[in-house]
Amino acid sequence: MMDDAHPTPWNEPVTVAITGASGAQYGLRLIEALVAADHVVWVMISKAAHLVIATETAIELPARPERLVEALSGRTGAGAGQIRCFGREDWMAPVASGSGAPSAMVICPCSTGTLSAVATGASNNLIERAADVALKERRKLILVPRETPFSAIHLEHMLALTRMGAVILPAAPGFYHQPTRIDDLIDFIVARILNQLGITHRLMPRWGEDP
Ligand SMILES: Cc1cc2nc3c(=O)[nH]c(=O)nc-3n(C[C@H](O)[C@H](O)[C@H](O)COP(=O)(O)O)c2cc1C
User: Fold this and answer.
1) Domains plus CATH for the chain?
2) Is 176 annotated in some ligand binding site?
């Protein structure tokens, strides 16, 4: 996939699903970082996530996938075709099948509702189905839950998912890099996700590296 302003092919697609846990900014920043790293990004945003985005940010994002592509491309500077968005029941999307899904998917942030649906294989919407496909195909699946405190149900589902090969990467930023801005806390988590994906970044130094 290329566009005129970007004559070399994009790097392989990564699926990013934003669900209705607090911390939508983590997911939006992740999309921005993947675009900056020249990856194609396939995006799904749940209905609850749209409500959370409207509640906790000043960002206005349309629900319709075609308009969402424009809005996210405008925000991130993505090239033509670099971002694709899929709707809740877009079962024809490539992420719905093992033959079309990319090698990595991140649910960021991940609500406990979606966490539980993924752990039990519900597949009632495209986000849940795409995660189910990632698990059955033994592809990389990273879930970024945000809830506190966790119930036994949440913890049991996280353990089950870890045993299935998924990575549970809680939205729990550290403070040892002495953050002074909210963006520093967001980048802490996004950097950890990119590390898991094996994508080079300069969001923050790794432990033991010079800043
Ligand atoms: C402003 C707001 C904040 C929320 N924060 C959380 C949260 O931090 N964690 C969580 O698991 N659910 C949270 N919820 C509840 C979920 O959005 C709700 O369970 C929803 O059904 C999740 O649906 P989804 O997984 O399809 O996005 C929040 C809801 C709203 C409106």
Assistant:
1) 11-197 (3.40.50.1950)
2) yes
Of the candidates 48, 178, 51, 29, the one whose C-alpha atom is nearest the C-alpha of residue 108 is: 29
* Both tokens assigned to 106: 């991140």
46 alpha carbon – ligand 1 mean position (Å): 10
**Angle (deg, nearest 10), helices 47-56 and 24-36:** 100
pTM: 0.96
* Token pair in block for residue 180: 């002074």
Q: Ligand 1 centre and the CA of 181: distance in Å?
A: 24
Determine if ligand 1 sits within 6 Å of the CB of residue 111.
yes
147 lines ligand 1 (CB under 6 A): yes
What are 163-186's pLDDT values in tens digits?
A: 999 999 999 999 999 999 999 999
